[in-house]
């Protein structure tokens, strides 16, 4: 039985790239979509915030004005949203993509009350283009949308790591995994799981977060059913 009524799932762009670092791997997207369908079938209202790091990260390019570069990153998230939508709809999951930057020919603009209505009607809402402003991240978009739609929890699905560690477990074999953390500890220990803006937004609005590895079988469903996999943050 699902533990939560309404969730926000944050998928990084990297997660949609499969074994590559750039672009979209549709075989991998289809695997993610199958996991989402399982949550959908269990009746949990699901909003998904997609990242764009598989196409562009604004801060990584010094030769382009930062704001312009960030807008490019936001456009990348829309491509990811459309790929995920296509994959989900092929599985029979009803979806709506909303964009924080208007592009009406492509998808609906983000309208909070409309998003909530979609969720109530059992549609998966894919939130794209971040918060619609440069200098922010899609993690912050996940925190903001979760607060706005009154989600019970944010699921932070990670690729290549199965929770929060005190150092990168792919580099340091002695890295220690945390089962439970507070947002204050994330800030104080300077843990690189989310940027400070997103962390603070979650902390100030009491939104719990569960960080887990997307490659574990049925990971999303386990989290939705209240299993303590990965790291819980409160
Ligand atoms: N971005 C932005 N404002 C937002 C969300 C994203 O400017 O509200 C830009 C920013 O340049 C970021 C890029 O879009 O680097 C891709 O998003 P993010 O890095 O959060 O994606 P992820 O790491 O989750 O794949």
UniProtKB/TrEMBL annotation:
<feature type="binding site">
    <location>
        <position position="70"/>
    </location>
    <ligand>
        <name>UMP</name>
    </ligand>
</feature>
<feature type="binding site">
    <location>
        <position position="168"/>
    </location>
    <ligand>
        <name>ATP</name>
    </ligand>
</feature>
<feature type="binding site">
    <location>
        <position position="165"/>
    </location>
    <ligand>
        <name>ATP</name>
    </ligand>
</feature>
<dbReference type="InterPro" id="IPR036393">
    <property type="entry name" value="AceGlu_kinase-like_sf"/>
</dbReference>
<comment type="pathway">
    <text>Pyrimidine metabolism; CTP biosynthesis via de novo pathway; UDP from UMP (UMPK route): step 1/1.</text>
</comment>
<feature type="binding site">
    <location>
        <position position="53"/>
    </location>
    <ligand>
        <name>ATP</name>
    </ligand>
</feature>
<dbReference type="GO" id="GO:0005737">
    <property type="term" value="C:cytoplasm"/>
</dbReference>
<feature type="binding site">
    <location>
        <position position="57"/>
    </location>
    <ligand>
        <name>ATP</name>
    </ligand>
</feature>
<keyword id="KW-0963">Cytoplasm</keyword>
<keyword id="KW-0665">Pyrimidine biosynthesis</keyword>
<dbReference type="InterPro" id="IPR001048">
    <property type="entry name" value="Asp/Glu/Uridylate_kinase"/>
</dbReference>
<comment type="function">
    <text>Catalyzes the reversible phosphorylation of UMP to UDP.</text>
</comment>
<dbReference type="GO" id="GO:0005524">
    <property type="term" value="F:ATP binding"/>
</dbReference>
<feature type="binding site">
    <location>
        <begin position="131"/>
        <end position="138"/>
    </location>
    <ligand>
        <name>UMP</name>
    </ligand>
</feature>
<dbReference type="InterPro" id="IPR015963">
    <property type="entry name" value="Uridylate_kinase_bac"/>
</dbReference>
<dbReference type="GO" id="GO:0033862">
    <property type="term" value="F:UMP kinase activity"/>
</dbReference>
<keyword id="KW-0067">ATP-binding</keyword>
<feature type="binding site">
    <location>
        <position position="52"/>
    </location>
    <ligand>
        <name>UMP</name>
    </ligand>
</feature>
<feature type="binding site">
    <location>
        <begin position="10"/>
        <end position="13"/>
    </location>
    <ligand>
        <name>ATP</name>
    </ligand>
</feature>
<dbReference type="GO" id="GO:0044210">
    <property type="term" value="P:'de novo' CTP biosynthetic process"/>
</dbReference>
<dbReference type="Pfam" id="PF00696">
    <property type="entry name" value="AA_kinase"/>
</dbReference>
<protein>
    <recommendedName>
        <fullName>Uridylate kinase</fullName>
        <ecNumber>2.7.4.22</ecNumber>
    </recommendedName>
</protein>
<comment type="subunit">
    <text>Homohexamer.</text>
</comment>
<feature type="domain" description="Aspartate/glutamate/uridylate kinase">
    <location>
        <begin position="5"/>
        <end position="212"/>
    </location>
</feature>
<keyword id="KW-0547">Nucleotide-binding</keyword>
<keyword id="KW-0808">Transferase</keyword>
<keyword id="KW-0418">Kinase</keyword>
<dbReference type="GO" id="GO:0006225">
    <property type="term" value="P:UDP biosynthetic process"/>
</dbReference>
<comment type="similarity">
    <text>Belongs to the UMP kinase family.</text>
</comment>
<dbReference type="InterPro" id="IPR011817">
    <property type="entry name" value="Uridylate_kinase"/>
</dbReference>
């Amino acid at each position: 039985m699902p533990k939560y009524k309404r969730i926000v799932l944050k998928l990084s762009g990297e997660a949609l790239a499969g074994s590559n670092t750039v672009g979209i791997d549709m075989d991998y997207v289809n695997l993610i979509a199958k996991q989402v369908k399982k949550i959908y079938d269990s009746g949990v209202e699901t909003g998904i915030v997609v990242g764009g790091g598989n196409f562009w990260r604004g801060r990584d390019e010094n030769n382009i004005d930062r704001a312009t570069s960030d807008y490019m990153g936001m456009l990348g998230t829309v491509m990811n949203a459309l790929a995920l939508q296509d994959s989900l709809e092929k599985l029979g999951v009803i979806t709506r993509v909303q964009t924080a930057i208007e592009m009406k020919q492509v998808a609906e603009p983000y309208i909070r009350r409309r998003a909530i209505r979609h969720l109530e009607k059992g549609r998966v809402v894919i939130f794209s283009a971040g918060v619609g402003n440069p200098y922010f991240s899609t993690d912050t978009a996940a925190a903001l949308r979760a607060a706005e739609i009154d989600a019970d929890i944010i699921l932070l699905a990670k690729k290549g790591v199965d929770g929060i560690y005190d150092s990168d477990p792919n580099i340091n074999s002695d890295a220690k995994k945390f089962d439970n953390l507070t947002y204050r500890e994330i800030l104080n220990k300077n843990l690189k799981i989310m940027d400070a803006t997103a962390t603070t937004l979650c902390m100030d609005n009491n939104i719990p977060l569960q960080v887990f590895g997307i490659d574990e079988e049925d990971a999303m469903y386990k989290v939705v059913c209240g299993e303590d996999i990965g790291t819980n943050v409160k």
